[in-house]
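Thread: assembly with ligand

MN 10:42: here's the input set. Chains plus the small molecule as SMILES. Want everything predicted jointly, not piecewise.
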Amino acid sequence: MTLIPSPTTPDGHAAPCAPEDVRRVACVGAGVIGGGWAAHFLARGYDVTAWDPAPDAAVRLRRLIAAAWPALERLGLAEGASQDRLTVTATLEEAVAEAQFVQESAPEKLELKRGLLARLDAAAPAGTVIASSTSGYPMTDMQTEAADPGRLVVGHPFNPPYLIPLVEVVGGERTSPAAVDWASRFYTVAGKSVITMDREVPGFIANRLQEALWREALHMVANGEATVAEIDASITEGPGLRWAVMGPMLTFALAGGEGGMAHMLDHFGPSLKSPWTRLEAPELDRALYEAVVAGCEEAADGRGIADLVAERDRGVIDVLRATGRLPRTAEEAAR
Ligand SMILES: NC(=O)C1=CN([C@@H]2O[C@H](COP(=O)(O)OP(=O)(O)OC[C@H]3O[C@@H](n4cnc5c(N)ncnc54)[C@H](O)[C@@H]3O)[C@@H](O)[C@H]2O)C=CC1
Ligand SMILES: C[N+](C)(C)CC(=O)CC(=O)[O-]
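BT 11:07: finished. Tokens for the full assembly:
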């Protein structure tokens, strides 16, 4: 569907501007994810307005963006991109008053999201698409209080949104298909890699997969079968290296040798019946909680969160370059 600026879309909603014409984005909720989104949009040359009710939000937000900026410079800034194009507003209404796209990244609480999305819908210009960063709530459950639920979509990012390309886009029962289409196109123009889902699935796609792995990991810690360090090493030294290059399906197809996935399934299909997985969530009791937190502190080995963030950012850029998803530096290309 082509969405050029026009008074209404074919389904009767006020039309947003074309995704390519967006200049001003509002980020509402400016913590880890809202701040990461703001950094991404600034680096892509957008004007960004942000609002967050926390008294120290503006200071935290500017600090997060400043810390992300060296990584964003390494990635390559858009022409005119500047941290100075951020405006932190005193009210939600000011933040979205002229927004051509709104990204909501408030805490993961259903009632809060419902009320906030209704407020954003009341305050944002008619037609402006509003996306929620929710990690798992279906939009159908969040859009219940909005006067115009048709423009509300899920745009689920991955931490940090300024580095990890994927966004999962999906609407709710009352979302206009044109809004889903518009959001997918906008994120693409804004440099993201988009999966547009045609139906609501609990956990979307990637979180559903991640959660399965995470639950298994918690079971193993809870049962004393593996330490936090062993779980992390089992991925970073093992399958994680392959997953940065190829997904789990193609990776396993190669396990079948020249017979590909068919041989892999013939060979290993029967082990699906083996008790390799538990998949029900373990009780997140105090003991499990403390074991996981202590294991992570030990793994950090004195590095603070800021050190780990910088290390992760360098590493992800190196993987993106090494796997050809980013241009190599002149030095790498000469090798
Ligand atoms: N942390 C993660 O790895 C990811 C989180 N998400 C989603 O992003 C959203 C935000 O999560 P985080 O950034 O991790 O949380 P966070 O706790 O870091 O940030 C939330 C921010 O929202 C602000 N806030 C509180 N009440 C608000 C309100 N009524 N309106 C607007 N802002 C409000 C808080 O002051 C805080 O700065 C959640 O929906 C979460 O599920 C999505 C992908 C990854
Ligand atoms: C932990 N989490 C469920 C909030 C994670 C996400 O939603 C996506 C990510 O960044 O992995």
